[in-house]
Amino acid sequence: MPLLGAHMSIAGGLHNAFQRLLQVRGEALQVFLKNQRQWHPPPLSAHAVRLFQEERDNFAHVPVAAHDSYLINLAAPDPDIAEKSVGAFASELDACAQLGIEFLILHPGFHRGAGISTGIARFAKNLDRACALAKAHSVTVLIETTAGQGSGIGSKFEEIADMLMKSKAGRPLGVCFDTCHAFAAGYDLRDERSYERTFDRFEKTIGLRLLRWFHLNDSKAGFGSRVDRHEHIGRGRIGLQGFRLLVNDPRFESHPMVLETPKGKDLRNDRKNLATLRSLLRSVDDSESEPFEEDREADPENGGERRPTPRDPAGSLKRGKPSGHT
Ligand SMILES: [Zn+2]
Ligand SMILES: [Zn+2]
C-alpha cells in the first residue's frame, strides 16, 4: 500500500502542517517552506525550526517533502532571475536539512524562448551551482515531471533524463511523477495498456529506481493538452482507473503519493480525495468504486471514526512496518 497524503498549508507556522495531515489521516506530507511570492523571505526563526522538529519527531515515520518556490527558475535566460533562483534554491536546501525534511521537489523551469536544450543545460548548471552553494548535502532533490505548458522544460521523460545526466550536483537526485502533468504531457494512464506503456517508457528513459515521490492529481485539461490544471481524483480526464492502477502497483507499494488537488476552506476535499484513493486500494478489480461526489467517510469531528494518534496517522489503515524512506 503506498503512503497516501497531501500537500498541506503552513498557515500559522510550518509545524501546523503535521496536524493538518493528521486530520485527514495522511501518511506522507508535502509543504512549501515559506511565502511563495517573496524572493527574500525572512529566515526561519529558531523557534519555528524547533516547533517543526518536534512535530517531525512525532511523525518520524511520515516521509516529508518540501516543494520549491514557484519563483525559482533555474533554466532562466535572464541572469538576474537565474542568480536569484540559485540563491533561493540553495537556501531552501539548507532549510530542508535544518528542519529534517528529506526531499526537495523542484520544478525544472522555463526556457523563455531559448529552446529546450539550452534550457536544460542552464537548469543543470544552475542546479549544480545551488547544490554547491548549499551547506547541507543530506537533502535529495527530486525533479518534477511537468505538463510542458508555455516554455516549460521537463515534460518529456527524455528531458528529465537529460537533466539528471547533465547535473554533476554530487548529491542524490530523483524524480517526482505528477499524474496530471504526465497526462497533459502525453503520457496516458487511463487503462492498463497505456499505463504499462507509460511506466515502461519511464523505466527505459529514466529508470524506475529514481522515481521517489508522486503527486496524485486528476487533470481538468485533456490528454496531451500541455495544460496544467489539477482536478479532484476521479473527476478529471484521467479518471478512476488510472489511479486504481497506480495505487495498486506493487512497484510503488511503499512510495509517498500526495494530493495537490483543489482545496476549500477546510480539509474536506482532501478527505474525500483520500477516501476515493483508499477505496480504490480495497477494490482492485471492482469498477464500481465510490466517486468523489459520494462522501461515505464518517465525519471524524463527530466521533464517526477512530481518531488516529500522531504516531499512527493512518488510524485503522495499519501497515506492517514503516517504509524505509531516508
Ligand atoms: Zn505537482
Ligand atoms: Zn501542476
UniProtKB/TrEMBL annotation:
Its EC number is 3.1.21.2. InterPro entries: AP_endonuc_2 (IPR001719), AP_endonuc_F2_Zn_BS (IPR018246), Xyl_isomerase-like_sf (IPR036237), Xyl_isomerase-like_TIM-brl (IPR013022). Zn(2+) 2 binds at residues 144, 178, 215, 260. Keywords: DNA damage, DNA repair, Endonuclease, Hydrolase, Metal-binding, Nuclease, Zinc. Binds 3 Zn(2+) ions. Residues 286-302 have a biased composition (Acidic residues). SUPFAM superfamilies: Xylose isomerase-like (SSF51658). CDD domains: AP2Ec (cd00019). PROSITE patterns: AP_NUCLEASE_F2_1, AP_NUCLEASE_F2_2, AP_NUCLEASE_F2_3, AP_NUCLEASE_F2_4. Residues 28-274 form the Xylose isomerase-like TIM barrel domain. It catalyses: Endonucleolytic cleavage to 5'-phosphooligonucleotide end-products. Signal peptide: none annotated. It is an enzyme of class 3 (hydrolase). Residues 281-326 are annotated as: Disordered. One of its GO terms (molecular function) is zinc ion binding. The keyword rRNA-binding does not apply. Pfam families: AP_endonuc_2 (PF01261). Zn(2+) 1 binds at residues 67, 107, 144. GO terms for biological process: base-excision repair. Its cofactor is Zn(2+). Zn(2+) 3 binds at residues 181, 228, 230. Endonuclease IV plays a role in DNA repair. It cleaves phosphodiester bonds at apurinic or apyrimidinic (AP) sites, generating a 3'-hydroxyl group and a 5'-terminal sugar phosphate. HAMAP family: Nfo. Belongs to the AP endonuclease 2 family. This is Probable endonuclease 4.
